[in-house]
Amino acid sequence: MATNICRSLWNEFSSQDNLAGFAVHTAILDLTGLLNRVKIGRAISPPNWLEKAREYLDAYCTSSMSLPQLSRAVERHPTHVSREFRRWYGKSMIQFVRERRILRAREMLLLPERSIADISSACGFYDQSHLTTAFRRQFGYTPAQYRLTRVHG
């Protein structure tokens, strides 16, 4: 777990998007949470405040955000939000946001009137190349290839 967090932190330093500060902050808090972890009984479903945090991240995934901003929205400490999100959803908040951005881009690629560059900007990517790299990593093909098979295929 700590190795994954450290690897994720290292990857953030090479990322070219506006989420680097948010990602580094959450990774550090995740590491802190691991050091202070106490085994407690697990409820059946996430608490309401955590569902609210997930909805917030989904709603604002295309914009620049910060962990303190999210923490204020759900009225919880940033360390607690970060730790509980990973525990309940099995991924960091930054992984969740990036997945949402890619999924939004995939939906928008079905609209042939929108350029890939426009879609990348609308979904919070640094540029078209950044979207293409993330999209290929997630799905195994480029946005242009996806569009060709879905819209023109």
UniProtKB/TrEMBL annotation:
Alphabetical UniProt keywords: DNA-binding, Transcription, Transcription regulation
Domain HTH araC/xylS-type as annotated: residue spans: 51-149
Tree of life domain: Bacteria
Annotated SUPFAM superfamilies: Homeodomain-like
Presence of the UniProt keyword Transcription in the record: yes
Entry keyword annotation includes Transcription regulation: yes
Name of this protein: Helix-turn-helix transcriptional regulator
